[in-house]
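To: structure desk
From: M.T.
Subject: fold request, one chain
Message: Could you run this one when you get a chance? Sequence is below, nothing fancy, just the single chain.
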Amino acid sequence: MARDASPASAPRIDPFRTLTVQPAPVPRRAALLFVCHLAEAGFVARFRRLETAFRPFGDAYFLYDTNDEPLPSTLQDIPVHGFSLRTLRSLSYAWLHDRLMPGHLHFPVLEFFRARDAYDHYWVIEYDVRFTGPWRVFFRWAQGVDGDLLATHIATHPEQPRWYWWSTLTHPRATVADDNRTRFFGPLYRLSRRALAHLDAALGSGWLGHQEVVIPTLLREAGMSLVDMTRDSSFPAPTWRNWYTRDRDDPHGGLKDSSMQFARVLRYPGPRPLTLYHPVKRALGHPLDPLRMVASWLHGSRWRGDRR
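Reply: Done. Structure tokens follow.
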């Protein structure tokens, strides 16, 4: 027969002890910046679809160059962050030249960050990026990925020594060794709040360079984390699939055999499912467009990377 526990061995309970209940984790909120210089209804409709897909994860904004003019009527009823060369000049950063492109598309993002710095992450998606699947699937995956920079085509100088923009990275009093210089591809990426705060301070101190080298290099130099949207990278993502296709042997950084590239303007996205494509200029607005898209695949618009 088992004996009752003695008073000395029984656990002593303090009836006046206050129990601390841990609050449920709050989902991280993000901002999405849809970068578009066009205000036609078709692009607004594209933004609204992306806004709907992103709603469980945060807030979407139409990032638009106003040229210091009133917003077009098509943009009056959506969240817009307007900017101009004049407002960007007030950031007091160094410029490569006197135009927005090439190389300065991170300036409007940093201007937005200064105005709204409470988000945990900031997505940047150009209007001609397409995803061959529901965007919410991609955003749900990304929500579980930590990283100060989440992007495509992250590569180091030794991997792509002949890339054109390496030499634009300069500072009046500092330098970065070639082995530590890093690039990415800018049509779609995500930055953390602390990454943007660091970039804002670094650019204010005199750092200068094309956005695709200055962003990843300065973050890497600061010990922040870089994550590629594929497993086939020196900065691999914890992913069950590659969200875009790429060629690892690309010393010039031309990206020509990738679904995310700049050399060929695409009328339609490619046939590989759940894949990012750029640049896709045509919207699927005509009833025959799906058939035309399939015909383009069968007629030689083949992607080497799609077989991977």
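Reply (cont.): The longest strand covers residues 182-192. Let me know if you need anything else for the meeting.
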